[in-house]
Design a protein that fits this description.
With 264 residues, the protein is α/β, with parallel strands linked by helices. The chain contains 12 helices and 10 strands.
């Protein structure tokens, strides 16, 4: 067994949905979470910039001797994961592959929708992953740039949200998709509103699937920690620790330990 912590990074608070799923699936693992709140959002940045930010984040986590890194940001997973895997000798896991696997496994009609940031949708990472597993699938992509600020501003229900959900997702209803991938870690917070608009839809929350994949990965590498213990989660941010704590309650439903502010 390996008692070193697991490292997780995201552009901000969205990756907390992934962290929550990992804590539930792997309750005895220590975790270090890094939210790059000074440089959020990643979704409107260039590929080179996202690779640079992701490299900075990974180097910081490695300096704390993590045994694996979860790239909890969809944009970073889509545009930087391949680069990171070339240069870092540590198990790395993104959110794209687990989400695509789940969607392919549960779709009935083969009509799959993907929503995410502009950068994630432009990369077509989910589409490529889905089609490599099911070539006859029909993949419908839609960037939803207003969803992230809605979550950040805690506007997670009400008329404004309902109208924006309808604006973005009406095409999916027309195409009669049966499965929808939430291709951004902020979006699970909006799951209720999305489900209400898209009746009888199967929703894929990549965070849950990443937790399952991480458990398999740690066992395969023989680095899982299985003894019962009170695990700890340490938080780091690059800006606004107080604001991070307030927003984190929406993702966890509980207060978190105050994060350390760092400059990377």
């Amino acid at each position: 067994m390996d008692n070193r912590p697991i490292g997780i990074f995201d552009s901000g608070i969205g990756g907390l949905t992934v962290l929550k799923a990992i804590r539930e699936k792997l309750p005895y693992e220590d975790i270090i979470y890094l939210g790059d709140t000074a440089r959020v959002p990643y979704g409107n940045k260039s590929k080179d910039t996202i690779i640079r930010f992701s490299t900075d984040n990974s180097l910081f986590l490695l300096s704390l001797d993590v045994k694996a890194i979860v790239v909890a940001c969809n944009t970073a997973s889509a545009l930087a994961l391949d680069y990171l895997e070339k240069y870092f000798n540590v198990p790395l896991l993104g959110v794209i592959t687990p989400g695509a696997d789940k969607a392919v496994n549960i779709t009935t009609s083969g009509k799959i929708g993907v929503i995410g940031t502009k950068a994630t949708i432009k990369s077509k990472s989910y589409q490529k992953a889905i089609l490599s597993r099911r070539p006859d699938a029909l993949v419908y992509n839609k960037s939803c740039p207003l969803f992230v600020p809605l979550v950040e501003e805690r506007l997670t229900k009400g008329i404004i949200l309902d109208e924006i959900v309808q604006m973005y997702l009406k095409g999916f209803k027309k195409e009669k998709i049966d499965t929808l991938i939430l291709g951004c870690t902020h979006y699970p917070i909006l799951k209720t509103a999305i489900s209400s608009y898209l009746d009888n839809i199967k929703i894929v929350d990549s965070g849950c699937e990443v937790a399952n994949s991480l458990k398999v990965l740690l066992n395969e590498r023989k680095i899982a920690f299985k003894n019962k213990r009170k695990s700890k989660t340490v938080f780091y941010v690059t800006d606004d620790p107080k604001g991070f704590c307030i927003s984190a309650e929406d993702f966890f439903g509980e207060k978190i330990n105050k994060p350390y502010k760092i400059d990377i």
